[in-house]
Write a structure and sequence with these properties.
heterodimer, A: 903 residues, alpha+beta, 6-stranded mixed barrel, 6-stranded mixed β-barrel, 30 helices, 15% strand, B: 111 residues, 4 helices, 3 strands, disordered N terminus
């Protein structure tokens, strides 16, 4: 129909829909009017009034029939039926509030859990960056000998690309996010900043929310920065006054004291849009400053010298072509690089371009698998919830059998009745979805908060968007089809004549419907078992990770991190400070030993270097890139790492006289390294040489047991130790860590007032933080699987209770014929447990099949772990027995006389 | 009594649109006018008149309005809409072509 006609037609349709009575009245008026005029016409022609009226009606050919034809012309019967169905459905549901509440809550749980997890999956894995044409963006990185992508690019590489590369339509760079301390109006504000190339916002196509964003002129102009929307709202209460304000970096009091630190004042020039979070998903800088800001008081080499490069390729250029074109340029750049040759070969030999429409993300790498697993878990949960609702609707359908039969007998089409029943389940599902959406929104925010750790704060926007709504809508449609269709088909099946003969609801039994109910229960049990098994395996993994011997003593070691001892201090001063510090620590009550090291295990830090080992020739393609750390004497004693041969470092090792910065002559290696390079021979006395740089030889003086360093899941890896001059402090204590922690700041202050403690925690706490995502997914999986178990038990209970009610006369007869209550009890429980057993069997088979999804999340437990499967089967069976018990008790109490009289 | 099938399929709509193109009328007046303009050749029963009118109204070709007649009665008056007028022109053309074609065929000389 052309739009113009709708101007006339649409109001009519709406009128006949919402003012049906009025429209009908007008129709009656119109036709009545006609009859009257016609009658008068005939009378005036000489007919008797009775005769005239009769002729007029005859000519019309049946008043009601014509009215119906006119109504049909409105073409909205289906809509009117729908309105009628909805009204009727609401009335029916309102009449049984208990049923409605249980169903809506069950569906809300299923849909809400799905929405919550999906909104995180969406933000983390699916959504594209909120920039202009995100599909054009590529990440320009490099790779080398082993095909591993580099972890960043040198800032010089970016400038060379910007000035010389013809393959890019635009190219931009940004540093990693780093913490700063800002001073604004004499108030200190901690803030995370990102350094970005001057063309960053222009190249991404981001428009300012207020003020202006960085431009090429800011490259060398007066220091300027852009703040994020959230930061602006938090610090300036969204006031326009923020623009043009001056912000100072660094500690002013420190500056006035030493007189040496210059003031670094930046002007706020604009606010980034609310949805913009940079190019790294999961992070959210508070401010963006130009990359070349020499004014920034940062000592972080990584922040100023290493960048991530994004670009838009020239139109028509494929990724492979661009890589080929850029390779010579990169090799040209690397010729002047300060990096060691071996590092250049390993990471910076070839250009590596990857699409970056969805941005880059550390959080994505960390949570992508857990998020996918959880998506499956909540999907199964929704299936179980649907099963429950389907079973409830099925039971209701049976109870309403007479109503439905009568309607069918009176001439209602089967499809029409099914539509009515489907409308009811749709209403339930919509109510469930709305509740679930609200709850899901809240839950996802809660979940998001628990994703973040100190090391990796995760900031994602899970606000409503079209995709989430579409997802919820499809979950809803799925729910309606799964829970609504089968029961309504079942309820309208059967021979009318047979159904009408049946007297009273209690005696009604239909084997087909019971079978459907049983199938649903079996399916629910199977799915629950799968979820429980997944939760069991993850909990087992978590237990293993928390308790296995990682090579060091988690519980007795306290780790203290600090900052502040200034680079202006001499080597001797630093050495003196640490010597005094360790001495003081050892005198504290309960402290057995104390040490320091460049970094501590499972802290997220690692350093590796290429070495040559005496008497060992590398095979072609083999590398000896060994991880190492500088430590103090007594480190192994403090950490509880057993010394296998030789000795620990001594004071002399640490403070050997040498002109070089790393004056070391001794080294201690771990068992794996000893075995790799020396086999069964003794490594003691052999030497290690750093391949790059001019460092003295290291002589191996000891061998220690293996311990985990970077990750609890890592296999045995080479590791060696050299004497170190500074680092984080480790204290081995038998006393309370808390009391000890309380006394530390004062001691530190008394030794050197410029040193501040940045963290005190036990090694266990540090390790536990690395298990954060394991713990989170285990907890969520357990929660969801227990919810699934509860739903399944409710379903089992409901089905059995309904069966008992339906079969009460049969039970009565059995009892009258001599069955003991115990037999009846066994009959009911037996039925429930049979279903549970079949379901568990299927569930175990399915869980074994699907276990590979979990495999990489597990630790020291197989995906087929029999103990876990036995455990969850027992949990499931016990819960099932409980669910069967109540209906079985009720069956036992059936009074044969009452039951038979009812018949 | 004549049946609607006495009319060529679809021509009732055309007739009604044409009548309403001359002036807005109520149902009864339309039935009188129909008889009057076509004499005894075309007979439209009252029974098929109203459903046809309602269909045209729902299609948006004509619109209806309750008005007071000269003898102070309220009656539903139908009038042609703008899209209805276009539709009428198109249908009239179609009809013209059809009628010409058929009369040509009918007038073929038998040899």
């Amino acid at each position: 129909m052309r739009p113009e006609r709708w101007i006339y037609a649409l109001p009519l349709r709406l009128r006949s829909l919402f003012h049906r009575t009025k429209a009908d009245q007008e129709l009656a008026d119109e036709l009545g009017d006609h009859l009257e005029l016609k009658t008068q016409q005939y009378i005036s022609q000489g007919m008797a009034s009775e005769e005239a009226r009769r002729s007029a009606v005859l000519e019309m050919g049946g008043l009601e029939k014509r009215k119906e034809e006119c109504r049909d012309a409105r073409q909205i019967t289906w809509l009117q039926d729908l309105v009628q169905d909805v009204r009727y459905g609401l009335r029916i549901l309102g009449k049984s509030p208990g049923f409605t509440t249980v169903t809506v809550l069950t569906l809300a749980l299923g849909i809400g859990a799905n929405t919550a997890i999906f909104s995180i999956v969406d933000a983390l894995l699916l959504r594209k960056l909120p920039v202009r044409n995100p599909d054009e963006l590529v990440w320009v990185n490099s790779t080398g000998t082993f095909g591993q992508p580099a972890e960043g690019s040198e800032v010089e590489t970016y400038y060379a690309y910007r000035d010389k590369a013809a393959a890019f339509a635009s190219v931009l760079a940004f540093s990693g996010i780093a913490p700063y301390e800002l001073t604004y109006k004499e108030r200190k504000i901690p803030a995370n900043g990102e350094l970005v190339s001057a063309n960053y916002f222009a190249a991404l196509g981001v428009r300012p929310f207020a003020g202006r964003l960085l431009a090429d002129s800011d490259q060398h102009g007066p220091p300027a920065l852009v703040v994020s929307f959230a930061f602006w709202k938090r610090e300036w209460d969204s006031s326009e006054d923020a623009i043009g304000q001056a912000i100072t970096f660094g500690d002013q009091s420190d500056a006035t004291r030493t007189g040496s630190v210059p003031q670094h004042t930046f002007t706020v020039i604009g606010v980034a849009p609310p949805d913009f979070f940079g190019a790294k998903v999961g992070e959210s800088p508070d401010f963006y400053a130009p990359l070349n800001s020499t004014e920034l008081p940062t000592q972080d080499y990584w922040q100023t010298q290493w960048v991530t490069i994004l670009a838009r390729l020239k139109p028509g250029l494929s990724i492979a072509q661009a890589q080929a074109v850029l390779d010579p340029l990169l090799q040209e750049i690397e010729k002047t690089s300060m990096l060691p040759q071996i590092e250049r070969d390993e990471e910076f030999a070839h250009v590596l371009i990857t699409p970056a429409a969805r941005g880059l993300s550390d959080a994505r790498a960390k949570f992508s698998l857990p998020a996918r697993i959880l998506m499956v878990v909540v999907g199964l949960l929704l299936l179980i919830a649907c099963g429950n609702v389907a079973n409830l609707l099925l039971a209701r359908g049976m109870a309403r059998k007479r109503e439905i039969t009568v309607r069918l007998a009176l001439g209602a089409g089967r499809w029409r009745v099914i539509r009515q029943l489907l409308t009811e389940s749709t209403l339930l599902a919509i109510a469930g979805a709305v509740t679930g959406l609200a709850a899901g929104q809240w839950t996802s925010r809660l979940l998001l908060a628990s994703l973040s750790t100190r090391q990796l704060p995760v900031v994602l926007s899970t606000a409503f968007n079209l995709r989430t709504l579409l997802f919820t809508a499809s979950a809803l449609a799925f729910t309606v089809i799964v829970c609504g269709l089968a029961p309504s088909l079942a309820a309208t099946r059967g021979e009318l004549a047979e159904e009408l003969k049946v007297q009273g609801p209690a005696s009604y039994r239909s084997s087909a419907q019971s079978r459907l109910g049983s199938v649903l229960i079996v399916g629910q049990v199977a799915l629950s078992l799968m979820l429980l098994a997944a939760a069991g395996l993850l909990l087992h993994t978590l237990y293993n990770l928390e308790t296995f011997d990682a090579g060091f003593d988690r519980d007795k070691v306290l780790i203290v991190t600090m900052t502040g001892y200034s680079s202006s201090r001499t080597r001797d001063q630093v050495a003196q400070f640490y010597r005094c510090l360790l001495d003081r620590m050892k005198q504290l009550p309960g402290v057995h030993s104390a040490s320091y090291s460049g970094f501590t295990p499972i802290s997220g830090k690692e350093v590796g270097i290429n070495v040559a080992v005496e008497g060992y020739t590398l095979r072609p393609g083999e590398v000896a890139n060994e991880r190492f750390v500088g430590i103090s004497p007594a480190y192994f004693e403090t950490m509880g790492i057993p010394l296998l041969a030789g000795r620990e470092f001594t004071e002399e090792d640490v403070h050997a006289e040498s002109p070089s910065n790393l004056a070391t002559t001794a080294a201690i290696i771990n068992r794996t390294m000893a075995q790799r390079f020396f086999g069964n021979g003794s490594p003691l006395g052999k030497s290690i040489q750093f391949v790059e740089g001019h460092r003295p030889q290291l002589q191996i003086v000891g061998v220690v047991a293996d311990s985990k360093y970077n990750d609890l899941r890592e296999g045995p890896t080479d590791f060696f130790y050299i004497p170190g001059t500074h680092g984080d402090l480790e204290i081995r204590t038998s006393g309370s860590a808390k009391t000890l922690a309380g006394s530390l700041p004062a001691i530190f202050h008394s030794l050197d007032s410029s040193v501040t403690i940045t963290g005190i925690r036990t090694l266990r706490e540090q390790v536990d933080e690395s298990l954060h995502s394991d713990r989170l997914i285990a907890a969520l999986c357990t929660t969801f699987s227990l919810l699934a178990l509860v739903l399944t038990c409710v379903g089992l209970y409901g089905t059995l209770a309904f069966h008992v009610a339906q079969r009460s006369s049969e039970i009565g007869i059995r009892m009258a014929l001599g069955a003991r209550p115990r037999d009846i009890f066994q009959l009911v429980v037996g039925q429930g447990l049979r279903l549970t057993a079949i379901g568990s069997m299927l569930g175990i088979v399915a869980a074994l099949g699907a276990g590979s999804l979990l495999a990489s999340m597990l630790f020291a437990v197989k995906q087929t772990d029999p103990l876990t499967f036995l455990g969850v089967s027992i949990v499931l069976l016990s819960a099932a027995v409980l669910a069967c018990y109540i209906p079985a008790r009720r069956a036992m109490r059936v009074d044969p006389m009452t039951a038979l009289r009812y018949e | 009594m004549s049946k609607p099938s006495d009319l060529v399929q679809g021509t009732l709509d055309l007739l009604l649109l044409k009548i309403l193109a001359l002036q807005p009328l109520n149902g009864f007046a339309i039935s009188l006018r129909l008889k009057q303009v076509s004499g005894d050749v075309l007979q439209v029963s009252d029974g098929s008149l109203y459903p046809a009118l309602h269909k045209l109204e729902q299609e948006g070709w004509i619109s209806a309005e309750w008005k007071t007649t000269q003898n102070n009665r309220r009656a539903k008056f139908y009038s042609l809409t703008r899209p209805g007028r276009k539709h009428l022109e198109k249908e009239a053309d179609n009809w013209g072509r059809l009628a010409t074609a058929i009369s040509h065929v009918v007038q073929l000389k038998e040899t």
